[in-house]
Amino acid sequence: MLIKSVLRPLLAGAAILMSVPAYSQPSGGFGRSPQVNPDNTVVFRFRAPNAQDVRLSVQSEKAPVRMEKDARGSWSATIGPVKPDIYPYSFIVDGVQVMDPGNRYYFPNERFKGSLLDVRGDSSLIHSMRDVPHGTVTYEFYPSAEGTTGTVLVYTPPEYDKSPKQKYPVFYLIGGTTDTEETWFKVGKADLILDNLIAEGKAKPMIIVMPYGNIEARVAEQKGGLKPADPADRESEEALARSKTFERDLVDNLIPYIEKNYRVIANSKNRAIGGFSRGGGQTLRTGFGNLDKFAWICCYSAYLSNTELERDFKGVVENPKRTNKKLKLLWVSVGDEDFLYRQTTGFIDYLKEKKINHKTLISTGGHTWMNTKLYLASTAPLLFK
What we know:
By secondary structure, the protein is α/β, with parallel strands linked by helices. The chain has helices at 183-186, 190-199, 215-222, 237-261, 278-289, 306-312, 314-318, 320-326, 341-353, 369-379; strands at 2-6, 15-19, 27-28, 31-32, 35-36, 42-47, 54-58, 65-66, 68-69, 74-79, 85-93, 96-98, 106-107, 114-119, 136-143, 149-156, 170-174, 207-211, 271-276, 296-300, 329-335, 359-363. It has two domains: 33-119, Immunoglobulins (Immunoglobulin-like); 136-382, Alpha/Beta hydrolase fold, catalytic domain (Rossmann fold). The chain has ten helices and 22 strands.
């Protein structure tokens, strides 16, 4: 796989290329942490001689795990065996959350600080690094809202550079609240999932565009302000206004940029949108509001209320025949322990009542990036067929 950082003429004329290091759990000055043993038990270590209490918070466990301190001031805890997957974790040191200084792999996020535990198991995992052709991930910069510079990651399939006349469909893939444009890449492993699905002949070669979902935060940051707090109510006026800002940036700025600089098939049948959590809400609002631009909508762990649907998307719900004709796929998935399970399954019931065609997946587990990888791996094979 190749990572490429591109500064187009908007910013600079040079392109910087660098190869990706092999995935591993690194060691640091604080000792090897995390240490994944052959039986999939995992040892975590953290040096804090003056700390009174250190706990491990990891998404594979139901509650924080108390760590033990040795005579040298190093704290440790062993968990597992742990099911192979990628889990965010952090240490809680006397009540303060900190990343693991012995691990350079971290969870890209605006606010919380987490490291990543990769329990690999065998190569059967859909996000495993396999011996298959790999695509390229490019860091791009584009002209965005209010004169700011937008940031986006773009995955191109393995054959992209070898077939200069070939054009491809595009999947716009959005992270959740406080996620950055890197989260689908570094945690969701979108590139490896697509590499593997394409190699197996299960998914069509496609371009994946991974934007940053918080336009207001970027505008504030680039104009010298503070990032605004996230709306507590997902259906509040402020939350809806922010979703509309994202929609306008995607439709008016990002899509034209991608279609100018990449070989894409620029029509609704070859354009998909998907997202997790807040990104799932942005997906539904942007997709339903632009059915002339997106024929494939993939909602992961999110929903729209009946009130909003009937107020803002009346044409979608009152004319199901037209909606079904325009949409090639409307997908909704959620975990049975997700805090949005009730609202999301209510949304699914509403779609059934209104006779709007859709596919669903109710998985086990909660509002996690472990589930999000599953949802991407389940929907990508359905796209552009």
